[in-house]
Amino acid sequence: MRLSSKGQIAISGMMFLAIHGKGRAMTAAQIASDQDISVSYVEQLFANLRESDLIEGVRGPGGGYRLAKPAEKISMADIVTSVDDRTYTMRETVIPYYGDNVRYLSQIMWSSLSRSIYQFLNNITLKECIERAHDGDSISDVPARLWHSGIPGDYADLREAS
User: Fold this and answer.
1) Helix 126-134, helix 5-16: angle, nearest 10
2) What's the angle, vertex CA 106, arms to CA 103 and CA 108, rounded to 5?
3) What's the CA dihedral at 119, 121, 123, 129 to 10 degrees?
4) The dihedral of CA 39, 50, 71, 85: what is its sign?
5) Of the four, 15, 30, 59, 120, which is 20 to 30 A from 94 by CA?
6) Three-state SS for 116?
7) What's the number of domains the chain is made of?
8) Residue 96 to residue 90: CA distance in whole angstroms
């Protein structure tokens, strides 16, 4: 599994729906404004989330998007895998081992990291993520205070946490 900007924005958009929507539909313009991205990009990502049955579209006045199921039933992995172009499986790519084959050895490391990321994201729900961040708790070993330190994916802050 890889974490793309699409996955990060999708998670943020889903958090926005869970926090501000409370069962009401939120417009693509409201979500785009909160995320500081274009409405068309929100609609593109949310089309994938809708196809994965994580959100539903509401037509007409007061329409927009809302969660299709409770936040405690949606894992972070559900969100990320629904918007990424790759299909994720827990199956390994088999590369033949020949002594000190660097490609084989690096593939083992990347496959293990990919599984760990997937398992971490699959074991935390949208609701838990919001609650922990709101309470100032950490998610895994990254304190919530570091989430607010700069650009999403600012690894310098994560190094300080370790």
Assistant:
1) 80
2) 110
3) 160
4) negative
5) 120
6) helix
7) 1
8) 18
Q: Which two tokens stand for residue 124?
A: 């935390």
Q: Taking the CB of residue 97, how many other CB atoms lie within 10 A of it?
A: 12
Intervals of the chain under pLDDT 70: 1-2, 85-100, 135-162
Closest CA relative to residue 47, chosen from 73, 65, 27 = 65
pLDDT of 158 reads 41
Q: What is the Cα–Cα distance from 1 to 115, expressed in whole angstroms?
A: 7
Angle at the Cα of 30 from the Cα atoms of 25 and 36, rounded to 5 degrees: 145
Q: Helix, strand, coil shares of the chain as percentages rounded to 5?
A: 55, 10, 35
Helix H or strand E segment including 67: strand 64-67
Find residue 142's DSSP bridge partners: 139
pTM (2 d.p.): 0.73
Give the 3-state DSSP-derived string for 35-56, with helices as H, strands as E and coil as C. Answer: HCCCHHHHHHHHHHHHHCCCEE
- pLDDT given at position 116: 86
Assess contact for 14 and 6: CB atoms under 8 A: no
CATH number for the domain including 50? 1.10.10.10
* Residue span of the structural domain in which 137 resides: 5-161
